[in-house]
C-alpha cells in the first residue's frame, strides 16, 4: 500500500517538498553568496537505470551503478539575478525551448524572496561531437553549484537527491569513480540516493565510439515510460538488473575484468531488449551500431578483452583495461579512450 496522501498535490509541489526535505532546516534560507561554481563528471552505467516507479520524483524501479568519467563532464556557474538567464556552451539558451523550460522548472525548486532569479552559465568539457553531453553531468553540476551559492554544505546523499530531481542518472554524477544509485523503497525518495564504492581501478578504460550525432529519436524519459507501460519483457528487467548489480559489485571487489565487461555488456543488451519488445518498439540502434558490436565480438574472438555498452542512443562505449590500450586503438582507431581514475 502506498503511503502517499489521498489529496492530489501537483508534481511541482511534490518535487519541492522532496527538495525541502533533503535541505532540512536549510530550506528557504537566503543564499550565502552571490555566485556558486561547480563541476560534475558524466557517467556511464555498467548496470543501467531503466524505468521509474515515480515519474515526478524520478524514483527508479531498480538500483544501478556507473563509472564517472573523470574530467569529462559539465562546469556550471550560478549567479543571483533579477530574472533567469541561461548560457549553454557560450550561446544563450532560449527560456521557452524544451531545455530552457526544464531548467527553469528545476530552479523553481530553490527560488524564494532572496533568490528570485538565477543566471546559469554552463559548459560541457566533453566535446559535443563525443555524443556524451548528457543531463546527468548537467544537473549534478547545477545541484553542486547551488550548494555553493546557498552555502548549504550538503552531504553526498542529499546532493544526489537534488540532482535526481533534475535527471535520474544525475544522481550518480555527484561523485567520482564507481557510484551506485540505490533505488530505495520510500515513496518520498529520501532513501533513493547515491553511494560511491570505495574501490579504485586505475587500469580501467572507457572508449567512446561516436557513430551518430544529433538529437536522439526519442528522449530517455519517454522511452522509459513507454517501455514500462507496453513491453512484455519489462517484467523481467528489475530482477535481471538486481542480479547484474551484485555480480558487478563482486567483479569490482575482486578486480575481475572479464566478469565486469561480460555483465555490463549483457545488462545493456537486456535493457535494449526491453525497448525492442515495447509496442511500438523503441529502437536506438543504427546500422553503425550493429557493425560496431560485430567488431567488438570479432576482437574478442581474437583474444582481445574488450566489451561494449550502450545507452539510450546509437553510440557504443567500449570497456577495456590499460594493457589492451594499443590493441584497442588499432582495432578501433576512431575510439576516444578515457581513463576514469586518471590512469
Ligand atoms: C539509458 O537519467 O536521462 O542512460 O531520469 O528521465 O532524466 P531521466 O532519464 P535519464 O536516463 C538515463 C538512462 C540510461 C541508463 C543509465 O544511465 O543508467
Which features does this protein show?
7-stranded mixed beta sheet; 4-stranded antiparallel beta sheet; 343 residues; binds ligand DP6; single chain; Alpha-Beta Plaits; globular
Which helices and strands, and how do they pair?
Blueprint: H1 11-23, E1 35-47, E2 52-54, E3 59-60, E4 64-81, E5 85-88, E6 91-92, H2 98-107, E7 117-124, H3 135-150, H4 156-164, E8 178-181, E9 194-196, E10 204-209, H5 220-230, H6 237-254, H7 257-276, H8 287-301, E11 307-310, E12 316-321, H9 325-331, E13 336-338
Parallel strand pairs: 5-7
Antiparallel strand pairs: 1-4, 2-3, 4-7, 4-8, 5-6, 8-9, 10-12, 10-13, 11-12
Helix pairs in contact: 1-4, 3-4, 6-7
This protein binds ligand DP6.
Q: SSE order in H/E notation? A: HEEEEEEHEHHEEEHHHHEEHE
Would you tell me the structural class of the helices and strands?
A: alpha+beta
Quick one: CATH class of the domain at 204-338? Alpha Beta
- CATH architectural arrangement of the domain at 204-338: 2-Layer Sandwich
Distance between the termini: 48 Å
Q: Please, what is the CATH homologous superfamily of the domain at 204-338?
A: GHMP kinase, C-terminal domain
Q: What's the gyration radius in Å?
A: 20 Å
Helix content: 25-40%
Shape: globular
Q: Let me know the average pLDDT.
A: 94
> Which spans have pLDDT < 50 for at least 5 consecutive residues?
none
> Any ligands, ions or cofactors bound here, and which?
ligand DP6
Q: What is the subunit arrangement here?
A: single chain
Beta-strand residue fraction = 15-25%
Major sheet characteristics = 7 strands, mixed
The number of helical runs is: 9
CATH topology-level fold name of the domain at 204-338: Alpha-Beta Plaits
Number of strands: 13
Amino acid at each position: 500500500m502506498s503511503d502517499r496522501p489521498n489529496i492530489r498535490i501537483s508534481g511541482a509541489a511534490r518535487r519541492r517538498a522532496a527538495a525541502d526535505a533533503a535541505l532540512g532546516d536549510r530550506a528557504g534560507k537566503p543564499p550565502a553568496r552571490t555566485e556558486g561554481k561547480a563541476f560534475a563528471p558524466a557517467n556511464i552505467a555498467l548496470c543501467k537505470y531503466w524505468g521509474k516507479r515515480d515519474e515526478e520524483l524520478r524514483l527508479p524501479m531498480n538500483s544501478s551503478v556507473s563509472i564517472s568519467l573523470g574530467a569529462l563532464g559539465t562546469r556550471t556557474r550560478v549567479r543571483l539575478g533579477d530574472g533567469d538567464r541561461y548560457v549553454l556552451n557560450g550561446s544563450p539558451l532560449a527560456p521557452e525551448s524544451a531545455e530552457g523550460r526544464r531548467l527553469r522548472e528545476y530552479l523553481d525548486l530553490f527560488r524564494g524572496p532572496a533568490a528570485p532569479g538565477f543566471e546559469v552559465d554552463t559548459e560541457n568539457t566533453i566535446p559535443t561531437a563525443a555524443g556524451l553531453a548528457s543531463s546527468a553531468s548537467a544537473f549534478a553540476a547545477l545541484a553542486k553549484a547551488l550548494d555553493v551559492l546557498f552555502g548549504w554544505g550538503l552531504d553526498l546523499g542529499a546532493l544526489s537527491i537534488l540532482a535526481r530531481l533534475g535527471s535520474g542518472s544525475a544522481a550518480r554524477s555527484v561523485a567520482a569513480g564507481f557510484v551506485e544509485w540505490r533505488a530505495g523503497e520510500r515513496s518520498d525518495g529520501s532513501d533513493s540516493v547515491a553511494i560511491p564504492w570505495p574501490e579504485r581501478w586505475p587500469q580501467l578504460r572507457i572508449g567512446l565510439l561516436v557513430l551518430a550525432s544529433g538529437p536522439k529519436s526519442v528522449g530517455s524519459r519517454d522511452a522509459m515510460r513507454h517501455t514500462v507501460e507496453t513491453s512484455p519483457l519489462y517484467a523481467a528487467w528489475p530482477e535481471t538488473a538486481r542480479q547484474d548489480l551484485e555480480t558487478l559489485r563482486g567483479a569490482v571487489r575482486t578486480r575481475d575484468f572479464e566478469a565486469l565487461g561480460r555483465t555490463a555488456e549483457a545488462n545493456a543488451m537486456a535493457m535494449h531488449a526491453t525497448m525492442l519488445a515495447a509496442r511500438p518498439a523503441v529502437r536506438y540502434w543504427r546500422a553503425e551500431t550493429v557493425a560496431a558490436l560485430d567488431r567488438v565480438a570479432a576482437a574478442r574472438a581474437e583474444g582481445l578483452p574488450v566489451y561494449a555498452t550502450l545507452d539510450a542512443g546509437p553510440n557504443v562505449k567500449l570497456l577495456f583495461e590499460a594493457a589492451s590500450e594499443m590493441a584497442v586503438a588499432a582495432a578501433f582507431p576512431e575510439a576516444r579512450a578515457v581513463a576514469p581514475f586518471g590512469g
